[in-house]
């Protein structure tokens, strides 16, 4: 599984990344987590508001900071 956190480096993007790291490590330590800052990539994926969260290329969340528990649930839904 690959999770991408889309963001330009703002505090909300950093918080989503940190929450994603915590959630993924609690569910499965082999999950690949990538921080993406390329705005062109965001638009290709249809993410026009950051932060964004993608799991295996599918947009899961846009424009909000999900909690660790919310991210864990999304990971489990996509396993």
Tell me about this structure.
This protein is α+β, with helices and mostly antiparallel strands and 79 residues long. The protein has one domain: Glutaredoxin (3-Layer(aba) Sandwich), CATH 3.40.30.10. The protein is built from three helices and four strands. A four-stranded mixed β-sheet has the order 2-1-3-4. The longest helix is centred in the N-terminal third of the chain and has 17 residues. It is globular, with a radius of gyration of 11 Å.
Number of strands: 4
- The CATH class designation is Alpha Beta
CATH topology (fold) name: Glutaredoxin
Rounded mean pLDDT is 96
Q: Could you say which overall geometry the principal axes of the C-alpha atoms support?
A: globular
Q: Please describe the biggest sheet, giving its number of strands, its sense, and whether it closes into a barrel.
A: 4 strands, mixed
Indicate the percent of residues in helices: 40-55%
Number of structurally distinct domains: 1
Q: What structural class do helix, strand and pairing data support?
A: alpha+beta
Based on the coordinates given, report the CATH architecture: 3-Layer(aba) Sandwich
Q: Spans of 5+ residues with little confidence (pLDDT < 50)?
A: none
In CATH, the homologous superfamily goes by the name Glutaredoxin
Strand order of the largest sheet: 2-1-3-4
Q: Termini separation (Å)? A: 8 Å
Q: What's the SSE pattern?
A: EHEHEEH
Please tally the helical runs, counting DSSP H or I stretches of 4 or more residues: 3
Residue fraction in strands: 15-25%
Radius of gyration: 11 Å
